[in-house]
């Protein structure tokens, strides 16, 4: 793996409606941050069938674009593309930045609420191990306990639901890690981002992992689904207490028409 990688990303989200939509508003968190191991060289967001109303930084310093639909539209296309340079920092993002104090990242949310299964997982870790080694052991324990299986989980599942089912996707892995890390007294957060796959350029979704904060290192990333810390193939987009604060796309609309969403993500070395 190179110590420095130049990645080109193209991300297209298409909403198709059965009937014209009276009004719709989408909240988009799809702009990478220049922070830690990555530098954003260029980035643009283009909208067809709607328009960007405004952009702002939320409490986590995520760039949020609000996109409204054109009256009567039956399709909205949001295309984000750009280039990012990534250094290999062994998963270390570095010092805390943003408007949220660190203690906020020890708060429980419905998606990261611990229960008996989370507590059992933490209790089985070596209490005498250094904090970083203990977090790596936690990542591996979750990787072993929760099999990655596309379509196996529900968006509303919490960490305990995932552990009880024994299967899930990257979002679920991250929620379990966050719940357990907070049980250990370690601030933790959710990360949405891009991952360059070794076997393909075109993907149908973004990726997700978790970060934990250690006094000597700052924020450190853990991709539980792949049992590694993020390297030069990873681009961070947004962070939050859980998926719902860092979701790439969320929104609402008026009208009784059915909606279909398709996503195409291309990540390749430049």
Any overview of this molecule?
The chain has 270 residues and is of the alpha+beta class. It folds into two domains: 4-86 and 249-269, Sandwich (Immunoglobulin-like); 89-246, C8orf32 fold. The protein has five helices and 16 strands. It has helices at 116-123, 131-145, 159-165, 170-183, 243-246, and strands at residues 4-21, 23-31, 38-48, 50-57, 63-69, 73-87, 92-94, 147-148, 167-168, 188-195, 202-203, 207-214, 218-222, 234-240, 249-254, 259-269. The strands form four sheets. Strands 3-6-1-16-11 form a five-stranded antiparallel β-sheet, with no helix packed on it. It has a five-stranded antiparallel β-sheet with strand order 7-13-12-10-14. Strands 4-5-2-15 form a four-stranded antiparallel β-sheet, with no helix packed on it. A hairpin with a 3-residue loop joins strand 12 (207-214) and strand 13 (218-222). Helix 2 packs across helix 4 (170-183) and helix 3 crosses helix 4 (170-183). It is globular and about 60 Å long.
Text of the CATH class of the largest domain: Alpha Beta
The overall pLDDT average reads 93
* Helix and strand run: EEEEEEEHHEHEHEEEEEHEE
Straight-line distance between termini: 15 Å
- General form: globular
The appropriate CATH architecture of the largest domain is Roll
From the alpha-carbon coordinates, what is the Rg to the nearest angstrom?
A: 19 Å
As for the number of domains, it is 2
Number of helices: 5
Number of strand elements: 16
């Amino acid at each position: 793996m190179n110590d420095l990688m130049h990645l080109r990303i193209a991300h297209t989200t298409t909403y198709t409606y059965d009937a014209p939509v009276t009004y719709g508003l989408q909240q988009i968190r799809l702009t990478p941050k220049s922070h830690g191991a990555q530098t954003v060289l260029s980035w643009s967001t283009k909208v067809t069938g709607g328009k960007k109303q405004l952009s702002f930084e939320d409490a986590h310093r995520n760039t949020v674009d609000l996109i409204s639909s054109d009256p009567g539209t039956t399709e909205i296309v949001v295309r984000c593309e750009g280039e990012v340079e990534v250094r290999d920092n062994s998963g270390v993002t570095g010092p805390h930045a943003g408007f949220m104090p660190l203690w906020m990242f020890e708060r429980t949310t419905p998606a990261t609420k611990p229960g008996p299964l989370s507590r059992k997982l933490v209790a089985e870790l070596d209490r005498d191990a250094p904090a970083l080694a203990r977090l790596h052991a936690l990542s591996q324990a979750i990787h072993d306990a929760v099999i990655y299986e596309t379509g196996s989980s529900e968006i509303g599942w919490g960490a305990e639901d995932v552990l009880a089912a024994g299967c899930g996707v990257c979002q679920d892995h991250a929620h379990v890690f966050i719940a357990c890390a907070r049980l250990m007294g370690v601030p933790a957060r959710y990360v949405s981002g891009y991952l360059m796959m070794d076997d393909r350029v075109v993907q149908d979704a973004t990726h997700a992992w978790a970060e934990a904060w250690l006094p000597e290192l700052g924020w450190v990333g853990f991709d539980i689904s792949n049992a590694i810390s993020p390297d030069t193939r990873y681009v961070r987009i947004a962070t939050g207490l859980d998926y719902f604060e860092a979701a790439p796309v969320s929104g609402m609309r008026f009208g009784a028409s059915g909606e279909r969403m398709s996503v195409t993500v291309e990540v390749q070395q430049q």
